[in-house]
Known about the structure:
By secondary structure, the chain is of the alpha+beta class. The protein has ten helices and 14 strands. A hairpin with a 4-residue loop joins strand 2 and strand 3. The radius of gyration is 32 Å and the shape is extended.
Amino acid sequence: xxxxxxxxxxxxxxxxxxxxxxxxxxxxxxxxxxxxxxxxxxxxxxxxxxxxxxxxxxxxxxxxxxxxxxxxxxxxxxxxxxxxxxxxxxxxxxxxxxxxxxxxxxxxxxxxxxxxxxxxxxxxxxxxxxxxxxxxxxxxxxxxxxxxxxxxxxxxxxxxxxxxxxxxxxxxxxxxxxxxxxxxxxxxxxxxxxxxxxxxxxxxxxxxxxxxxxxxxxxxxxxxxxxxxxxxxxxxxxxxxxxxxxxxxxxxxxxxxxxxxxxxxxxxxxxxxxxxxxxxxxxxxxxxxxxxxxxxxxxxxxxxxxxxxxxxxxxxxxxxxxxxxxxxxxxxxxxxxxxxxxxxxxxxx
Length: 349
């Protein structure tokens, strides 16, 4: 699926309008999907004004809109706010497709999470509710059914190198055959380093060629058919529990089932990770990759934006580099001075 993220920060206003959007490029259609949140205490007049500005700005003949989100406007009741919003949507040929409550309370249901789509694709839609775990909001699943709007196939490429025993042996053989004669004729250290770097890079590129691999979704191999079935059963129990909250026996059964399922999932993950480590040629690296991928912080930013050097805060990259160079150049001199002072003091003693 090929999409473009759209910058809508200028339209965001705290509590009144939080919005993001993407544009999907389909074969016969350009679909812009807006996701909106409006807090219950947001300014309604400003909300309508911002929304109308957005629709005016992005409205084009060949572009279709799909607007979804938590608007905190109950469309199951006849109110001035709901009527005003529906009128605004109809002005831009947008129709509401959600016709069931999306939030359940103890006494009533409310339709505050809605989806509006262009009338050109209204008849091609299918929508259904999805119980969203312990949340008091129901999710909505919307599907487009038409062959002529199937998205173009785009595959993200991942850059990699072919590194195995064969390519490593070839790299080592090239280094053994290299005479390094040019290094000995270099006039200075800098020239010698550049020659060394060029030779090493040439052999490295020749030994480990770059390949591009189609990127895909990683699937969790620990999710077995039994776990999927148990998750469906858990969801059914939750729905029964939500509709019968006074049933203590049902509540205890649901909590016990959740606890058992959690232990089963943890054990399945553990066995999967152990299997990956056992099959790896570099077990330490594989173990750390598993830890990073499951800790939520797989990437770290090592960029140095500022340092404190001799009571001065440096932010300029050139000044930071000079400060590091100055420190390491003078390290041996400072150590010699320090040791000479200690020697002198011990001699005086």
